[in-house]
């Protein structure tokens, strides 16, 4: 092991013991978040390493071009690769300057986004489109989610996930589908959709029940992880709860906390993590 590697390992050990602090030696890709682990033996406070999700706005010669939800790090490479695959950049020499400031990557050079000025937002699973600025992602007017109209028992969570798993017919046959379901307080699956994109499956669910907004008494079940746009969709329809087999990102947790949504992840046999809104889970 070289000296540099040894120092890096030492830094990782030191910072791993500091709760709720971000590692400072590099662009942060994970963050330690306080949560509650609920199991049959009881509830204990824990800290989980959560994947960081933050927006990155890419500007070309002073004009916003695209906003993408990503895990920070290698932002320059991300932008160059996206520009190349979109047919905007032919050679890296065409770029004269790249500067990153406050999650805005400014690119200058002999390049033009003319003909590509679709001003869209790419999520970490390509879920949210049609927005050209960071402000437009959060500047919505969602219904206020009531704090006391939806509760679950501790044992309900595993039952719900079991129902979801047994209902994923296309996943069972292909192994390549995400599933999203809506459920009520009686643990009944009201709607279910499968798609190669988790965001598409959730949009299908919302489309099926567009005439029953807001969804104050319906929660969402997700077969995978929880990124920002999944929480955003739930918030926009007034849903009070998301239960996911996978893990949430930092931005998903932040948005859920901001709107009083109960966010449950890492559901396994007889245990799960509650990241926000634990008051809705009765032991």
> Portion of residues in helices?
25-40%
For the terminal residues, how far apart are their CA atoms?
49 Å
- Taking all residues together, what is the mean pLDDT? 79
Given this structure, which CATH class of the largest domain is correct? Alpha Beta
CATH superfamily of the largest domain: Cytidine Deaminase, domain 2
- Largest pleated sheet: 8 strands, mixed
In the residues, how many domains can be counted? Answer: 2
Write the CATH architecture name of the largest domain: 3-Layer(aba) Sandwich
SSE order in H/E notation?
HEEEEHEEEHEHHEEHEHEHEEE
Low-confidence stretches: 1-26, 126-137
Number of helices: 8
By DSSP, the count of extended strands is 15
Morphology call: elongated
Give the neighbour order of strands across the main sheet: 2-1-14-13-12-11-9-10
Q: Classify the secondary structure makeup into a structural class.
A: alpha/beta
Briefly note the CATH topology name of the largest domain. Cytidine Deaminase, domain 2
């Amino acid at each position: 092991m070289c000296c540099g590697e040894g120092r890096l390992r030492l830094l990782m050990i030191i910072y791993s013991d500091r709760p709720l602090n971000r590692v400072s030696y590099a662009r942060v890709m994970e963050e330690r978040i306080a949560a509650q682990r609920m199991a049959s033996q009881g509830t204990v406070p824990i800290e989980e390493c959560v994947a960081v999700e933050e927006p990155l706005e890419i500007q070309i010669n002073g004009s916003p071009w695209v906003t993408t939800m990503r895990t920070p790090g290698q932002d320059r490479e991300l932008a160059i690769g996206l520009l190349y695959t979109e047919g905007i950049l032919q050679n890296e020499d065409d770029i004269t300057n790249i500067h990153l400031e406050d999650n805005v990557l400014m690119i200058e050079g002999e390049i033009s986004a003319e003909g590509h000025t679709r001003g869209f937002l790419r999520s970490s699973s390509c879920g949210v489109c049609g927005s050209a600025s960071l402000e437009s992602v959060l500047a919505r007017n969602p219904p206020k989610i009531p704090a006391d109209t939806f509760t679950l028992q501790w044992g309900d969570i595993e039952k719900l996930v079991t129902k979801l798993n047994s209902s994923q017919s296309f996943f069972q046959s292909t192994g390549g589908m995400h599933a999203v379901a809506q459920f009520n307080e009686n643990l009944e699956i009201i709607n279910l959709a499968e798609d190669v994109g988790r965001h598409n499956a959730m949009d299908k669910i919302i489309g099926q029940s567009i005439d029953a907004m807001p969804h104050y008494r319906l929660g969402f079940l997700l077969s995978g992880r929880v990124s920002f746009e999944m929480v955003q969709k739930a918030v926009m329809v007034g849903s009070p709860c998301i239960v996911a087999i996978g893990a949430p990102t930092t931005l998903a947790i932040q948005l859920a906390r901001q709107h009083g949504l109960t966010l449950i992840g890492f559901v396994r046999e007889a245990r799960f993590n509650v990241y926000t809104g634990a008051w809705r889970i009765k032991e």
